Amino acid sequence: MAEPRFNTERHVKYYLRCLKTFLPTLYTSNDSNRMLLAYLTLSGLDVLGVLHSKTTAEERQGYIDWIYHCQVPSGGFRGFPGTDFGLESRTTENEVWDPANIPATFFALVNLLILEDDLERVKRKECLQWLPKVQRADGSFGEVLGPGGRVEGVRDLRYCCCAAGTRYILRGKAGKGLEDVEDIDVPKLVSFIGACQTYDGGMAESPFRESHGGHTYCAISSLDFLNRVSNDVKSVPLLSFGSKENEALLAWLVSRQTAKISESELDEDGSDTQDEQSIDTIEADSRISALPDIQSISADTILYAGFNGRCNKIADTCYSFWNGATLRMLDRYSLIDGDSNRRYLLEKTQHMVGGFGKGIGDPPDLLHSYFGMVSLAFQGEAGLSQVDPTVVTSKRTVQHLESLPWWQ
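Predicted structure:
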C-alpha cells in the first residue's frame, strides 16, 4: 500500500481559518470556552512550526492582551470576556457572577507561554491563593467559587489536572517569592486520584464511576505535574512499575487500541441486523450453531487500529492522544501498534480540507484536529514539533516556561 501522507499545508490553512475568520455556527454553544478554543488553535500552529511565520508580532500581542483582559482581579482567568462587567462595577458581592474558573486559568497560562509572554502581568500570588479555596476536603477540585465561597462543579479529574498544571506553572520548582502563600493539599489530591482507579485498571471521573481514557490521562498528568516540582509522589502505586495498580493501568490502556473503527456491522437505525424476535424462538443450541464464523486476525493483518475511550466502543481520533499521551508519560508508548494508529489517523479521519474529524467521514473540528495531530507528533511525524505529553504543547513552550527567572 502507498505510504499515508500528513498534508501539512492543508492543516496550516485549517488552523489559520480558525484563527483569523469566524468559526462555524456549531461552535456558538462553546462561546464560554473561548480560552480552550484559543489554546487548540495557537498550539496547533505552534506544533506545525508556523505560529511566528504566519502571524505578525502585532497580532500575537493582540492575542496576549485579549488573554489578560480575561484575568479576574482576585486571581485566575475567566473563559471568555462575556461575563466581565468592568472593574468599576465589580464588588465583593457580585464578583461570584464573573468568577475565575480552573480550566480557563490553566489554558490562559499555557496560551501566554505559547505566545512567549513573560507572565509578568499574571496575578501570580492571587491566583495561587485562590487555588486552595477551590479544593474540597477529599482532595478533589471544583470548577469555580460560588456564593459564600462554596466550591461549585462536580468532582472531576479534569479539574484536578488543570489545578495541578496551574500550580506547576505558577509555583515553579522552589516556590520562589511564594513563601507566605498557602499551597494546595497535595497528599489529599494524590489520595483522591488513587481512589478513582476502577476494578479494570482504568481511571474514572471520580470514585466508583466508569473508567475512561480522558480521565485516565488527567489522573496521570496530574501526578506528573506534581512530580515535576517535587519528589513527594514518585512512590505512588499508579506510577510504580510492577505494582498491581500500575500493571492493571497499563493493561487497560493497551486494550484501548482497537481495529473496530466504524459501526458498519450495524444497520441504519443502529440495531443489530439480525431479527431479535426470531432469535427469541430459537433454542440455545440452535442459537449457538447459527452464530456467524469470525475470521481470525493477527497483528500483521490489521491495517487500521485507532483507540477508544471506553470498553466496547469504536475508535475515536482524540483517544489516540488521551491513551497515547498517558503511555508516553508512563514511558510505555512502545506497547502500542504505531503503524496501524498512524494509518487510521491519516487515511480514515484526516480531512481533505485540513484538520481531523472525530471518526470516519466526520467534518474536522478543533479538538480532534489538535489531538490527532499531537498523536502523530508522538510518533515522530515529519513536519511536527516535539510535544510535551503533560502540558500538551510544544517542548519549546515548556522550555520557555522553565527559563523564567522565578520558575527555576
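Summary: The chain has three domains: 32-86+95-122, 123-254, 256-265+303-408.
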